Structure formats: C-alpha cells, structure tokens
C-alpha cells in the first residue's frame, strides 16, 4: 500500500536474442541497469528497441538469453507476474480516454488491491479502508506527476501531454522498482517535453526507482540518462555515458542520415 522503500535490484539483460521468422531483431544483446539509474536504449528505426522493451516486460519470449531482476529470471514469466515483481511499463500509444484521472490511476492500483471483489462490492470495512488508503496514495502520485489539479478531470478533456503523464502516473501506481518508459515524449510539443523530463527527474529523485527509457528524442536521452545502450540492426554497437556514446564513431555512423546522437538534427 505504501511506497516501496527498498532499493531496486539490478536488471541484468544477458545475450538476449529474438528472431521473427528469418529476421534477428535482437542479436545477443546485453546491458545492466544499475539500481536507481536511468538507462536509455537508443538506435535508428528498426534497431530493436521496441523488441527489447517487449522482452523486458514479458510480451516477447527471447529465443535465448536471460533477463534477471536481482535473482529472479523474468523471461519465462507472464507480463502480469513481471509487473507484480515491480517492473511497470508505459506504452507509446495512449489508449486511455475513459474516466477521470483518479479513475485511471485507481485502475493502476488494481494489482495491489488485497480485498476481493465481493468484499469491495459489499463495502466491508476492510475493503472501504483499503480503498481509502489507495485513493490517498494515488493522489500523492498525481501530485508528484503534476496532475494534482486535474485529479477529478475526465481524461478525454486533457491535453496530449497531460494524458501521457496520466500513463506515466498509472504505471507508478504499481509502486514499481523499475519503470520502463516507451517513447515518453513522442508526439509532444517542446513545452510538454520539458515538463515530462522534469517529472521523470522528480519521480526518480523521490521514489529512487530505476528507469529504462526508449526514446528518439536525443536531447531528452542525453539529459536524463546515466547510461546509454545503442542498438543497430539488433546488435549492441555502443554502450556508455551519454558523453561517451555521442562521440562514438559507430554511433555517428549508425545515425548518419537520420539524426545526430548529440541532440541536433542532421543537416
Ligand atoms: N512482431 C514482429 N514480427 C516480425 N518482425 C518484427 C516484429 N516486431 C519487430 N519486427 C522487426 O524487428 C526489427 C526490430 O524492430 P523494433 O520495432 O524492435 O525496432 P525499433 O528500434 O523499436 O524501431 P522504431 O524506432 O522504428 O520503433 C525490425 O526489422 C522490425 O521490422
């Protein structure tokens, strides 16, 4: 019910390979997300970033390799089991259009609800108390993500940027120890991007969780990430701090003609 206070375990990705028919979408990819750090996975279109995220969250099962959260192997677990272990994700495309911000965040608490359906429906005292505690925590998460003033607003009335933050807040309602952010600023305007970057920084500082980020916005990646893994055609071609990867000749080559790894568009 209360926020998790223990440090997140390391997330270790080792030699992960994913094949679709004849195509190797991930080819023996390895990286480690150290506890409490922000780790970005970047690369040109088709590099394997989404495939990597889908492996981490249990939507895809790799042909070989392992993903371990602390001592627990994740690759054989269903997505809801992985979420229950404290790995929550957001999705690129917003699907939320129904209910208020509060309703959506309470849905994010579902997996943490102990009182059964019958107890809740009958409004038994334990269920009522649990519901009240969840609502209080959900309100805190709304404040933390800048949604406090919009708590009772229907999601359908929100701007795109605010709705993306509802998605983020809903993932936080699982009290994750590792947060997977799939293109968190895709489709946002400049102001919304800055706001989202601030929120991600704040939630990391406040909740001490690890963040794994897939993102095309290189400026955001360079500002937020402690470490960066660069994929190209399913292979890891570089790895290091933002400063190290932005100078890496392989990375510059991979991005040539698409975008530069230093956050500037290629001329
Ligand atoms: N379900 C699938 N079936 C077949 N091929 C797939 C599937 N998902 C991804 N691929 C292929 O695997 C490769 C990696 O795709 P992926 O979506 O992981 O790349 P990405 O780096 O996320 O790209 P983008 O930046 O364009 O989202 C691509 O060649 C893609 O066409």
UniProtKB/TrEMBL annotation:
PROSITE patterns: ABC_TRANSPORTER_1, ABC_TRANSPORTER_2
Entry keyword set: ATP-binding, Nucleotide-binding, Transport
Residue ranges constituting the ABC transporter domain according to the UniProt record: 11-258
MF term (GO), any: ATP binding
UniProt xrefs under Gene3D superfamilies: P-loop containing nucleotide triphosphate hydrolases
SUPFAM superfamilies: P-loop containing nucleoside triphosphate hydrolases (SSF52540)
SMART domains: AAA
UniProt xrefs under InterPro entries: AAA+_ATPase, ABC_AA/LPS_Transport, ABC_transporter-like_ATP-bd, ABC_transporter-like_CS, BCA_ABC_TP_C, P-loop_NTPase
Protein's name according to its UniProt entry: Branched-chain amino acid transport system ATP-binding protein
Lineage, opening ranks: Bacteria, Bacillati, Actinomycetota, Actinomycetes, Kitasatosporales
């Amino acid at each position: 019910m209360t926020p998790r206070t223990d440090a997140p375990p390391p997330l270790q990705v080792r030699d992960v390979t994913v094949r679709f028919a004849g195509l190797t979408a991930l080819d023996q990819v390895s990286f480690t997300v150290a506890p409490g750090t922000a780790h970005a996975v970047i690369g040109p279109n088709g590099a394997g970033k989404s495939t990597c995220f889908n492996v981490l969250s249990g939507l895809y099962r790799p042909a070989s390799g392992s993903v371990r959260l602390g001592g627990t192997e994740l690759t054989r677990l269903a997505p809801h089991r992985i979420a229950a272990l404290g790995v929550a994700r957001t999705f690129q495309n917003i699907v939320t259009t129904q209910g208020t911000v509060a309703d959506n965040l309470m849905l994010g608490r579902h997996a943490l609800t102990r009182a059964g359906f019958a107890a809740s429906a009958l409004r038994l005292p334990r269920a009522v108390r649990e519901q009240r505690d969840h609502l209080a925590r959900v309100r805190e998460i709304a404040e933390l993500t800048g949604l406090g003033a919009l708590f009772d607003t229907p999601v359908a009335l929100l701007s795109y940027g605010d709705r993306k933050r509802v998605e983020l807040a809903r993932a936080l309602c699982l009290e994750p120890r590792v947060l997977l952010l799939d293109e968190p600023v895709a489709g946002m305007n400049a102001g919304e991007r800055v706001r989202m970057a601030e929120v991600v920084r704040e939630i990391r500082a406040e909740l001490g969780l690890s963040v794994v980020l897939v993102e095309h916005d290189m400026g955001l990646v360079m500002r937020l990430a402690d470490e960066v893994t660069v994929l190209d055609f399913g292979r890891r071609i570089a790895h290091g701090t933002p400063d190290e990867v932005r100078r890496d000749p392989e990375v510059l080559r991979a991005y040539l003609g698409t975008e530069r790894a230093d956050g500037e568009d290629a001329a």
